[in-house]
Write a structure and sequence with these properties.
Length: about 180
């Protein structure tokens, strides 16, 4: 099993099943996020995310409905932990997404190398744009403005060169 850690925000991901292992059927991650950790509200067009809580409580939003999931409960939605306590859960993507897997590896690698801000996101607009494109994530609300800025910087010829470098340094060799 492949394990990555983001030391900036204290998040940990264990790759239980990768896109390559499942022949593209699913990606299965075990995620531990610290108090107040999580992502801004977002969605993906190519795959769903199903969250199953293993320890703690996880707040999720499905459309307009907000839920607090407890151990053993699951939902398909963006994730966020506002409980003030760590939470551990699995996240299953259907179909699998090698791009999403690489986003996690690259983002955590950048954080380990001191290239992430206090919120755990890369400091570089180009890196953010590359990761937005690679992970096929789309922000909603006010964050959608940032998404357009990130994608602008992530769509240049220089960004494509940097993407190759990031994959070589942090991604899996099989994904290049």
């Amino acid at each position: 099993m492949d394990k990555i850690i983001n030391p900036v925000i204290g998040e940990e991901i264990i790759f239980l099943t990768t896109s390559q292992q499942s022949n593209g059927k699913k990606t299965l991650l075990e995620v531990t996020i610290g108090p107040k950790g999580g992502n801004p509200l977002h969605y993906h067009r190519r795959f769903s995310e199903t969250f199953t809580v293993l320890e703690g409580e996880l707040r999720v939003q499905v459309g307009e409905e907000k839920m607090k999931l407890k151990v053993g409960e699951k939902a398909t939605a963006p994730s966020n932990n506002t409980s003030g306590k760590p939470v551990r859960f699995t996240c299953e993507l259907n179909p699998a997404s090698e791009g999403f897997e690489n986003v996690m590896r690259i983002a955590f690698g950048l954080a380990q190398d001191g290239k992430a801000g206090p919120n755990g996101m890369p400091k570089s607009l180009v890196h953010n744009g590359i990761l937005m494109n690679m992970g096929e994530g789309y922000f909603v609300g006010i964050f959608s403005i940032l998404e357009k800025v990130f994608r602008f910087f992530g769509n240049s010829d220089k960004a494509r060169e940097i993407e190759k470098e990031l994959l070589e340094k942090y991604g899996k060799a099989s994904s290049i």
